[in-house]
Amino acid sequence: MGIEQTARHVADRLSELSAEFTGWRIGRGGSGLWWAVRGNDLVRTPDVEELRVRLHEFTVARRHA
After folding, report:
1. pTM of the complete model
2. Residue 35 forms beta bridges with which residues?
3. Which residue range forms the structural domain that includes residue 22?
4. In total, how many domains does the chain have?
């Protein structure tokens, strides 16, 4: 995958996650880690799908709190 394709792929994933998990700031760092932050909650992982799962868990836990 070329640099432009990679950048487009990352941008697409960021857009999807931002739409799915409102209230979170989501990004990908220079180290390759995906991250999300909301208030004092921070999630970091090398895999974007793991990030999605963990954010979903936070969302469910917050609804039941």
Report:
1. 0.85
2. 27, 44
3. 3-64
4. 1
Q: What is the full per-residue pLDDT of the chain (65 aa) written as tens digits?
A: 688 888 898 899 999 999 999 999 999 998 899 999 999 999 999 999 999 999 999 888 888 87
Residue found under tokens 């799962």: 53
What phi-psi label fits residue 48: left (phi over 0), alpha (psi between -120 and 50 degrees) or beta?
A: alpha
- Residue 24's identity, in one-letter code, is W
Which H or E run contains 10? helix 3-20
Structure tokens at 27: 């990004």
Q: How many CA atoms lie within 13 A of 40 on its CB side?
A: 0
Which spans in the chain are helix H? Answer: 3-20, 48-64
| 35 Cβ contact partners less than 8 Å away, ≥ 6 residues apart | 26, 27, 28, 29, 42, 43, 44, 45, 51
